[in-house]
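Re-running Cell wall-associated hydrolase, NlpC/P60 family to confirm reproducibility after the cluster update. Everything else is unchanged from the original entry.
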Amino acid sequence: MLEFGADASATLATTCNSGAGSVGNGSAIITEAKKYLGVPYVWGGKSPATGMDCSGFVGYVLMQVTHKSYPQYTVSLESKGTMLFNGGKPVMSELQPGDMIFYGDHGASHHIAFYAGDGQVIEEPEPNDVCHIRPYKDYEPDFAVRP
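Result of re-run:
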């Protein structure tokens, strides 16, 4: 299993909201995210100029699309959208481009990325790597949030 920085050290109770997501434009999220392909992973990084980690990347992309501030920790981002649940279980079959996908348990997730559509994920993966697109099936997430 891959390890991803100190993002998991943040603690925040997750909430499940109902209704449509607040961003509502997954294609705009993915278009923005693709601008940062090749940006190096830097633990704690929040800017494409200096490098970003997974949560810095997701927060930065959402800020560019919505012009709102977003948390810079993976667990904190869990509550910024609509959890996709069916009877308490993640509904991964309903993923849409722009959905935030999480790895690890609720409240203790250790990695975040965007579902890019067509079975692809866009992410800042880990140290010594760069923002890239990879197949979803290579490392499947545990749950998702629609921003």
